[in-house]
Amino acid sequence: MTSFAVHPVDLEPSLVAESTYATRRRRARIDVAAVVSVMICLLYLIPGTLIVPNMSFAGRPALLVAFALFAWWALTRLNRRLVMTGPQPIRWAAFLYLAGTMGSYLAGLLRGLPGLEANAQNFAMLQLFQFLGVALVVADGIPNWERLKGVLRVFVWCAGYMAAIGIIQSTTQINIAEYLVVPGLEVKGGIIGLSQRGSGEFFRVASTAAHYIEFSALMAVALPFAIHFARYGALKRHRYFAGLVAVLTAVAVPMSISRTGVVALGAVLAVMMIAWSWRVRYNMLLLGTVVIAGMMVVRPGLLGTVSYMFTGAEEDPSISGRTDDYELVGHWFSQRPWLGRGPNTLVPELYDGLVLDNQWLYTLVTGGLIGVIVFALMHLTAIVLAAIAWRRSQIEEDRHLCAALISAQVVSLLVAATVDSLWFTTFALTVFLLMGVCGAVWRLTHPARTVRTSTVVSYNDQPERDAAHEAERVADAVIRIAPVYRRR
C-alpha cells in the first residue's frame, strides 16, 4: 500500500495578503524541516555522551540546535509579520508547562539552595527551553505534509542506524560506540559499555543512546513509524528499507534486555492494533512469529532471559530498591505538595546516590502536584490532537500516522513510570519532537482553510486581513454547496 504522490492539502493556496496567495509546496533551502532533520541526525548518529568541550550535558550538539530552534520560534513571536497565524493548542500546553516549572523554580529559590541544587535547577530550565523549542517550532513551522513526512523519514532512518549498531554490539560483544567519537567533541562521563545480564552469555547494549533503557524505549517508539513507511512509502525502495528498519527496531528491543522496552513494545502494538484492519493484524502476527522464531535460532536463550526479568521480578533488587524509596517520596511531598523542591533538585550526590527511577515520582517531589499536572497535560494534549486529526482524516495513510503518534505518547507515559525519562535527552527530545508533530497534523487536518494553510503575516492592515479571511470562508461554503446545485 503506497501513499499519494501529492497530498491534497499541499495543493491548497495559502493566503498571505489580500488577493495574494502562495503555494503550500514552495521550497526553501533552509526551513524548519531541514534544521529539525539535522538535529535528529546529531541526536541519533553520535553517542549521547558527546558534548561541546567545557559544557554540561545540555551542550550536546543536538540540544544546542534545539535551543536555537527555541530562539528562532521566540523571535518570530516578536514581529507580527513573522508570527504564524491561526490557533495551536500545543502553544497553550507548552505555556502552562513552562509556567508550572517556573513556579517550581521560584519555590526552589525561595527555600534556599546549595550550589549543586542551584546548578541542577538552572540546567533543568535550560533543557526545558530546548525541549519546548522543538515541540513549538515543529507544530508551527512545518509547512505541509510533504515536509512533515520528510522529517519523520529522517527519524526512521536514524532509528534504523541506532538499531543496527545495537544489534552488532549484542552479537559481536564489541562496543562500536567507542569508535564513533567525533573530533572536536569530548566525552562526558564516558561511553556506556556492555553490561552483563542473565547467565553471562548475554550483554545489555545501548547503541548510541546514553542508557540501555533509553535505547529500548527509543526502538519501541520508532517501530510504528517504520511500519507506517513500510506500508505507505511513495517508492518501492523506500518501503523495503522502512520494512528492514521495522524488523531491526523490533529485534533491538529484546537485545537491550530491558523490562521497560518490552512493556513499551507491547503498548505500541496494542495502540496500533486499533488502527489496523484484521488483515493487517494477521500479517503483523505472522511476521512477528517469524521474527521471534528467527531470534530463537540466531540467539538461543535470549528470549528466556528477557522473560525471566518478569517472572523473577520478586528477586530483582532493582524493583525492591524502587519501592523502598516510596517512603522518602511521601516525606518530601508532604513538606512541599504544590510546587515541590524545585526542578532537578533531588541531586543524587547529596542524597547518598538516591535515584527514584520514576519520572512521575521525581516530578511530584521536585515540581509538586502542579508539576505533575502540567507534565501530564503536555502528553494528553498531544494525544488529543492526534486523535482529533485521526477523526478528521479522510485518507487511511493519515489515520495510520496519527495512530503511530498516539502510541509514542502512550509509551512516553509508561516509560516515565519506570525511569527518570527527562534525564535521557535523546528519548525526551524525541518525545517532544513527536508532540510537535501531533500539533502539526492537527493543523494540517483542520477544517478551516485559514488554519490548515496558515502562514506568516506579510501585511499590516488588520481589516484587510479579516476581509480576506471572510472571503475564504465564503469560498469554502460555495465549494461545499456546489455539488448540491449540480445534482439539482
TrEMBL record:
Keywords on record: Membrane, Transmembrane, Transmembrane helix
Subcellular location(s) per record: Membrane
Residues covered by the O-antigen ligase-related domain: 244-376
Keyword Membrane appears in the UniProt entry: yes
InterPro entries: O-antigen_ligase-rel_domated, WaaL-like
Transmembrane segments: 32-52, 58-78, 90-110, 122-142, 154-176, 209-227, 239-255, 261-278, 285-310, 360-388, 400-417, 423-442
Pfam families recorded: Wzy_C
Listed GO CC annotations: membrane
Protein name, UniProt field: O-antigen ligase-related domain-containing protein
Organism this protein belongs to: Phytohabitans houttuyneae
